Structure formats: structure tokens, C-alpha cells
Amino acid sequence: MASEIEVLEDTTAAAAPAAAEAPSVAEVAEEEALKDDVYTAAAYGDLEKLQRLVEAEGRPVGGTDASGYYALQWAVLNNRVAAAQYILEHGGDVNAVDHTGQTALHWSSVRGHIQVAELLLKEGAKVDAADLYGYQATHVAAQYGQTAFIYHIVAKWNADPDVPDNDGRSPLHWAAYKGFADSIRLLLYLDAHRARQDKEGCTPLHWAAIRGNLEACTVLVQAGKKDDLMVKDKTGLTPAQLAADKNHRQVAFFLDNARRVHDSGCNGNPTFAKLSKVGLAPLLWCIAVVLLATYIHSVIAGQYNMSMTPAFGLFAWSGVFVATAGLVMFYKCSRKDPGYISANTRDSHNQRDDEPLLKMELDNPALLTGNWSQLCITCKIVRPVRSKHCSTCDRCVEQFDHHCPWVSNCVGKGL
After folding, report:
1. Is residue 131 assigned to a domain?
2. What is the mean pLDDT of residues 302-328?
3. Residue 66: which domain range?
4. pTM of the shown model
5. Res 388: pLDDT
6. Active-site positions?
7. Which of 80, 82, 38, 43 is nearest to 60 (CA)?
8. Are residues 263 and 279 in the same domain?
9. Do 255 and 290 share a domain, yes or no?
10. What is the tally of helices (H) and strands (E) in the chain?
11. Are residues 253 and 189 in the same domain?
């Protein structure tokens, strides 16, 4: 991943002096001269200086500095909206590319500045502009964990959340490599392909394992299948083997254990795994029915032959009624909806090009406020508060408390 974008620091930031000696007059004059340009003014958002340089001194805003970067890029990197607006109004090119092929939109995604990015996009910035490495704004945002930025440009400007770069790596690869779990959740929710292999044969799970990002691995495994754990890169290694090779023992153990669970079921016992899904309710219900039938046959029917008294008969049949009512209630508890939340069953591959992605969920308050933990990457929904995903039922449940094996159902809002 050596081609990762570099964060461009403000060239106007003063370096720490190597010694306690005061700088010479010539050095101070040179530093002040360097600061008196449109690039520094744009970076600091000094609109007054910018107006003086452009309008009074005729300085252009469309050229590059000594490093090959534009004033507009420095403005958006530091979220200087007013300065960026001024530059665009005075000849700045919103889609101008520097020597690395990056536009101002790329720079806004480094720090996740949505406000200035919105200005650029309204002024005609290309949301799919790629630099020399094939990075689009979504790649750069994923590299720096700017989840809200990804959400904004995908939801409002229809950016592609799963586009590969020149090395075949999607934003999900980069988020996994850097360990940004929230970005991973959002990208998976947006249907990013979790099993995509890059030019080295690595999936996002491979890159998360290489860096030892346990939380990233956990999210990817929860959203994935057994095949994701068994994919080999071009060197023939699985994610678990790569983690072990990099001495990330905890990650390697987690991935190995996840593979064993997929291979042979719960705790290595496939029979027990199947029974844990069904629960104990059917067995308990059958036992209760057998006991009730035995009671009726052996106690009540037998006592009739011995001239049962009316009082004893009433008491005996009352017990049968109560037991039957209990069985009915037990059955209802096992079969009742505990508060399941409907999963999103959309097919992104068959979605029309003109149909907004996840249009039913994009305006959800949880996403607008950045509550990424409410995303369920399995059901592809935004869960209400206090809702959780039950791994046994494989469903999201409102006000989820726990899954009860005795009734073979979840304890939630409806139960």
C-alpha cells in the first residue's frame, strides 16, 4: 500500500528552531515575503489579504505555487469556504489538477470538510475525478476515516463507494487497512464488495489482518461468510495466515476461531450448532405434552374406574386446563414476533442507474448525526436505538435484551 496519498501539511507552518538563536533579519524578511502570496492567504483564510493581492496587485489565483499546488487546494484543505468562494469567483478552476493529478475535492476529503466540498460540487467539481493512482475522493476519505464525508458525497452526489483504484483497491480496502471501523460499516451498508481482490489478490480482510486491526476484522467477519476467511492472495496466504506472519497473534486467533466455527458449527460440534439454532422450546413442549397425556391417561382415567368423587374430578380437570393453557402460552412465546426489524432485501446489481441509492434510508437521522454504530451491515438497515442484531436468529430486534434458548426466541420489544 505504498502509494497511499500523503497529507499535505500547511507550508506556512513554522518549523521548530534547531537552536535558541533568534533568526536573522534576512531570514525574517524572506519568511514574510513567502507568506505574502495568495497561497498563504488562501490557506489561512485571510480574505482581506487575498483581495489586496488579487485586486490591488493583480496576482493570479489560477496558478500553482513552488510545490505545484493551487491556492484553491490550500483553501479547501483548511475549510476556508469564503476564500475558496472568492478564488472561484476570480478565475480559479474547480477541476484544476496538480502534479499528482489531485483536484481540490481530493484535498477537502483528507480532513473531511463537507462544507467546502459542497461548495466545490455545486460549482461543478467532478465527484469521480481520479488522481495518478486512481484515487477518487471516496478513496481519500476512506484512507483518513472521514465517514461523514463518504456518506455525504455518496448520498447527495452519487459518488461510487466501491470504485477500484489503479491497484484494484476499493475504498473498503483502504478503510480496512487503516482500521476505520465506522467507515467499513458505512461502506458495507452501501453495498461495497467485501470479497473484491486487488492486484495482489488481497481482499479488505487481508489488509485488515496485515495491519492487525482487530475491530476492522471483526466487522468484516460479521458481515461476511466462510469463503471470505478462506480466500488466498497471490502468495497463497489466507487472512489468518497473513496475521500470523505479521505476528498479530490476537487477530490470527480470532480469524482461525471464526473459520472453525464456520467449518464445524458451534464449539466444533455441528449437531450442537443446529440444536442451538432451534433452541430447547420444541423439546420442552414435547415433554410437557407427553407428561400431560400420561397424567390424563394414568391418573384421571384410572381414577374414574375407581369411582372418582366430583370434587377430585373437578380438581384434576382444572389441572389439565391450566397445563393446556400453559402449553398454548409457551407456544405463543416461542412463535411470537419479538420485535424483528425488516431487513433490506434490495439488489444493488439490479438497481436502476437513475434510482437513488438507499433512498429509503439516506435521510435517516442516525446517519445525518453520524451514529454509525446503528448501521447493521448484515440486515443492511439503520437500527433504532436499543436495537441489536441477534446472531442466533440472524435478525435485528427492537429493544433487544437477549436470545432465550428456553423459549427459542429473542427477548425484545414484542416479548
Report:
1. no
2. 77
3. 26-126
4. 0.78
5. 87
6. 404
7. 38
8. no
9. no
10. 21, 7
11. yes
